Amino acid sequence: xxxxxxxxxxxxxxxxxxxxxxxxxxxxxxxxxxxxxxxxxxxxxxxxxxxxxxxxxxxxxxxxxxxxxxxxxxxxxxxxxxxxxxxxxxxxxxxxxxxxxxxxxxxxxxxxxxxxxxxxxxxxxxxxxxxxxxxxxxxxxxxxxxxxxxxxxxxxxxxxxxxxxxxxxxxxxxxxxxxxxxxxxxxxxxxxxxxxxxxxxxxxxxxxxxxxxxxxxxxxxxxxxxxxxxxxxxxxxxxxxxxxxxxxxxxxxxxxxxxxxxxxxxxxxxxxxxxxxxxxxxxxxxxxxxxxxxxxxxxxxxxxxxxxxxxxxxxxxxxxxxxxxxxxxxxxxxxxxxxxxxxxxxxxxxxxxxxxxxxxxxxxxxxxxxxxxxxxxxxxxxxxxxxxxxxxxxxxxxxxxxxxxxxxxxxxxxxxxxxxxxxxxxxxxxxxxxxxxxxxxxxxxxxxxxxxxxxxxxxxxxxxxxxxxxxxxxxxxxxxxxxxxxxxxxxxxxxxxxxxxxxxxxxxxxxxxxxxxxxxxxxxxxxxxxxxxxxxxxxxxxxxx
Length: 545
Ligand code: PEP
Ligand code: MG
What we know:
Blueprint: E1 2-5, E2 7-10, E3 13-20, H1 36-65, H2 67-80, H3 83-96, H4 100-116, H5 121-142, E4 155-159, H6 164-169, E5 175-180, H7 188-195, E6 200-202, H8 207-210, E7 217-221, E8 226-229, H9 233-253, E9 270-275, H10 281-286, E10 292-296, H11 298-302, H12 310-323, E11 328-332, H13 360-365, H14 367-380, E12 385-390, H15 396-415, E13 425-430, H16 433-437, H17 439-442, E14 448-451, H18 453-460, H19 479-494, E15 498-501, H20 512-518, E16 522-525, H21 530-538
Parallel strand pairs: 3-4, 4-5, 5-6, 9-10, 9-16, 10-11, 11-12, 12-13, 13-14, 14-15, 15-16
Antiparallel strand pairs: 1-8, 2-6, 3-7, 7-8
The protein binds phosphoenolpyruvate and magnesium ion (MG).
């Protein structure tokens, strides 16, 4: 048995076989070949395999997400057969007498550059597709196609790191746990693991991957951050017992369903859930959340290879609103950039992406993308109780610009007789120190605040949330954070706005009493934490210290 120590980011235990995700090495090696016909035959076989894989993905997507979303895989199959693309690969192999992988990679770069330089947004977006199909062909050539979930058995996924877009596209039914060499607990990958209630341990260090093998048995303890590879009988028994106790506790919490979120002395609070996908609604309802306090709409963009259309977005938002049957649903507008990247946005590489062009800054510099989303949101508002929330606000003028665009979108809908709810609440995230400090100026302009403690912590304490090296300096209970939340709560209430917390700290039950004392009106947490927080609220007595 070997014991590895990382950082647990989702409190649960998993036992199963390891499956290592071998990511495509982007720096494909170039080497001389004598048998150019042999290389071309290798490309042919890799393409054939790619088409078969895409056909299977297309059929799965057709069943799970419908034809509109599945179409992209048909386009990918057509691109693989494209004459110009194939002629380019063959001519590079022939003229330079080099290996197939390198010829595909060079062709991919050339074609992606050509697409990216076109004026038409649709053609620009094809740059990401050509890279995608080329990576698939290269992965087939090098034998590294697996996303780790090919077998029918549920597995423990081990990887260097997982981007949020990779995490969302994994087949959840086949993942027992995540273990990554890098990552930090407030990264979006960790947040996704919590929202899926999948045990996860991060920050194992690079050498971890060199010491494990596909098929090794492992136990992942998301409570302690320990990973036991090839566990001995005593460890197995101990962890199985711990898993049983955890399940028993979860089972007991089920009895709180249907009960009020009320303290012993009678203070009430709303407990909502955070989601990233329409399909998360099931867990929201199963855990009896009172509403959705944060729908991270950017995952609609991350799952796609192109900008989701107004109609696609409208349908997704409408489905969430209808499923919540009148309960409040707060949808946050696109928060892309930093760790959440979609190729088709063609965002420039930045030295400090967390301090760069992300979230509302992208929306305000790309008003067409922003308007499309707002139009879809307002159209969906007719089907439930919607709140629209804007991320990364730092100034009053930004908020004024946003409100002006919202008014234009509403006027446009009205002029075209398209129904929308004129009482749709508008809110902002308090996730920069600037927003908290000027919360007295922002509050009169909105209906609600929602504190994003993940970013508020990163920006207040100057700790990159993606950087595991500074995790030890990232004290989420730091007095500065708590003071900023309290100050924002006072200002919200002074101007008739309500205030919630939707960052990960909302589920930290050691702070539930503190938040209740501040007068926080809503806590929005990962669906699986709703009942745990309800339990904490019901055991709190604000009349006692
Ligand atoms: C936050 O910053 O706390 C938050 C809820 O937003 P995200 O984690 O998506 O950045
Ligand atoms: Mg944030």
